[in-house]
Amino acid sequence: MENTYKLLKTDGLAKRGELHTVHGVIQTPVFMNVGTVAAIKGAVATTDLREIGTQVQLSNTYHLHVRPGDDVIRKMGGLHKFMNWDKPILTDSGGFQVFSLAGMRKIKEEGVTFHSHIDGRKIFMGPEESMQIQSNLASTIAMAFDECPPHPATREYMQDSVDRTTRWLNRCVIEMDRLNSLPDTLNKNQMLFGINQGGTYEDIRIEHAKVIADLNLPGYALGGLAVGESHEEMYRIIEQTVPYLPQNKPTYLMGVGTAANILESVDRGVDFFDCVYPSRNGRHGHLYTRFGKINIFNAKFETDSEPIEEGCQCPACKNYSRGYIRHLMKAKEMLGMRLCVLHNLYFYNHLMGEIRDAIDAGNYAQYKKDKLECLKTYDS
Predict the structure, then answer these.
(1) What are the start-end ranges of the E strands in 93-190?
(2) What pathway is it annotated to (predicted)?
């Protein structure tokens, strides 16, 4: 199986593509639904994900390593069999989680020593270990192990960090090639995406993009954004950096974001996204509609017999009223949270379909303008 990205169309800088993988074709731009521990928070099953149009599910290397253990998942036949999902899965490298444990970790050239947030045991993870864990998980796409520097960081710290991330990426490439060549590897077609870092330093970002682009990897990500900088700063970095990443490869903006963030980033050449917003907000009763965001706890919905959004084809809107879902949330019934998460994920997946259609039609600029006007009441 050859992993290939086909650029089907461009509209300005917006890209419309297909990523062919061993687990199926991903139509881009795409939003990856976040299932950190091999499940979407909010009692959402993989059978639900199929119903709401999910293309890619994202899971977390660090969390699955500490529980239940990547060795356990390997014995179960890999992550796809473990969670009953036959479409693509992306696993992040564990880097972000490891580096978020600032008081519990120590960085060396070899890798990072840190303590499990579950039982406190000492764990070492470097590029080779991250690749080995992700190979055991047998995900479709594995992310390179990188350092996620804090924001803000000094130029000196950032440059040292990015240089280390480059060295680690080269080690990831060697180890991934080795693992994919072994006879007992579960997914010998596992793809490796490299990660661009550099904080809000444009020159460091650009130089790093040039260096990693030379490795000719199956895809590239922008990491270390949406960590405290303004949206304007983030858009500036995307604009400056993306032109130095290969246009004929997927470009992934990690951990972003709101509907407005996605619309703006697509316009700057990004075509892969993930974020916990739709599921997290759904669990708190904040629901996305094409006319803005609503809080289902508002008293005005107590006797509202309309669906969350008229015309929406998600399982919640096709079957239940705002009044009933509000009651479930007030009563802390899990069904309420589940229906809210399903609606929000459906909204995001459907938004990406609209974006793809607009690029196909060559009218993305007008679509973005009209959509942003509708979304003014959203988080942005």
Answers:
(1) 105-107, 112-115, 122-125, 141-143
(2) tRNA modification; tRNA-queuosine biosynthesis
